[in-house]
Amino acid sequence: MNKGNILQGPMGLVLMIVSAIVALAAFGYAFMDLSSVGHRSFNTTSQIPWGQPIATYLYFALASSGLGMIAALSLVFGFKQFLPIAKRAIFLSFVILIAGMAVLAMELGHVFRMLWVIPLNMQIQSAMFWMGVFYIADLIFLLWKFQKMEGQEWDSKTSKQIGIASFLAVLLASGNLALIFGMMSMRPFWFDGLMPIYFYLTAVASGLAAVVFFTYLAYGFNRAAMPERTRAMFEGPMPKLFAAVLGGTVLFIAVRAVTGVYTNNPEISVVWREFLFASPVYQASLWLGIIAPFVIMMIAGLRSNPSMQVLVSMAVFAGLFAERYFFVVGGQVVPLFRGTWEWGLIQYTPSMTEWALTIMGSAMLFALFAAGERFLNLSDMPAEPAPEGATAAA
Fold first, then answer.
1. Residue 337 is part of a domain; what is its CATH number?
2. Would the CA dihedral through 249, 67, 232, 372 be positive or negative?
């Protein structure tokens, strides 16, 4: 037990129960609507088949991958200063992916049919088939690695091998997810060989936002209550890493935006000018959710401030969720096979049922996280090795 962790006390129980109630209520609303009218409860059409539920799944799946990559810093690459958040990052990666898969399952026409149709049909030429394979492998390795941590096997040979396998599964899963979009030549806004790099970078940004926010939440947003090694990490390497990753994210989005606006392909430039930049929501998410957090984290006096770290993590949550939404929908607003010579972009607004699925996944995440903090020691870390010569001196 960690005395500073408020979620191991009554607050954790309250958060778990309230979040579970919200998740069940949102699930009930969506399930009843889908059971009565099917996919007509979504505002998606044959022209825009992927709406907010797919964007939500994409957001959760990539945040999970980002957390897996962050955990690999200490567990695979030996950056021991990040060990204080390794176990929490692995657990968060697992539960966020579960929440994302729950949203995706509700979006499918037949929720349970995928359990036997996808593996038995063996559509090995389909990127979606391999997405399922790699993310299932990712889930298994995350759970296995967490089990090793629970058994205090941090540095055993098997534990290290599982850590490497988990890292490779994360790279394959998120990279393959990027290729589902990046290989679609009929959707010019998505068609990009660098899409895996973009997904890796923004995945780590989402993962950092998650681990910062949820770690502070566990300690009542009071850094003084954190264990000494955790507090030292949030005063030094963590905000610097966050700043660097946000800088890379800003650069990548800027390059995509400049290239998109000035390209001679109207099916790309029109989306950037008339859908993304014309939207006040996208503008706010870009400036307040990505660029402003980068500026804050670049200022030494601000990036070490606990309140600024929490604020930045929440802003990045919102900014990258909007980025996923506009990415998914933006690739479909130009009519397929008719292009820009058909006047106007296709209109889409999420329905209440689609919002219910987003709320369900988010509440499910909070409930599972609160349960993990309450019943598992997510703050656990291996003992710090004694300084060289200490044993001899003793």
1. 1.20.1630.10
2. positive
* CA-wise closest residue to 192 among 200, 181, 201: 181
Q: How many domains does the chain have?
A: 1
CB under 8 Å to 287, separation ≥6 — which residues?
none
Q: Tokens standing for 233? A: 């990490």
Using CA atoms, how far residue 128 sits from 60, 118, 180, 222, in Å, is 17, 9, 7, 42
| Cα(264)–Cα(119) distance, integer angstroms | 42
**Among the listed residues 7, 50, 143, the one whose alpha carbon sits nearest the alpha carbon of residue 336:** 50
Q: Which helix (H) or strand (E) holds 67?
A: helix 52-75
User: Is 134 domain-assigned?
Assistant: yes
Q: Look up residue 339 and give its DSSP letter.
A: G
Q: What digits encode the pLDDT tens for the residues 179-238?
A: 999 998 889 999 988 899 999 999 999 999 999 999 999 999 999 999 999 999 999 899
Scored b (16 or more CB within 10 A) or e, 217-232 reads bbbeeebebbbeebbe
What is the average pLDDT score of the chain? 91
- What's the rounded Cα separation, in Å, for the pair 356 and 327? 20
Domain of residue 267 covers 6-380
Query: In the 3-class helix/strand/coil scheme, how is 71-128 assigned residue by residue?
Result: HHHHHCCCCHHHHHHHHHHHHHHHHHHHHHHHHHHHHCCCCCCHHHHHHHHCCCCCHH
Comparing CA positions, the residue from 312, 159, 151, 157 lying closest to residue 246 is 312
Q: What is the pTM of this model?
A: 0.93
- Number of other CB atoms surrounding residue 129 within 10 Å: 16
* pLDDT at 393 (0 to 100): 45
Comparing 365 with 132, the larger pLDDT belongs to 365
Any domain includes 389: no
- Alpha carbons 225 and 154: distance in angstroms, whole number: 25
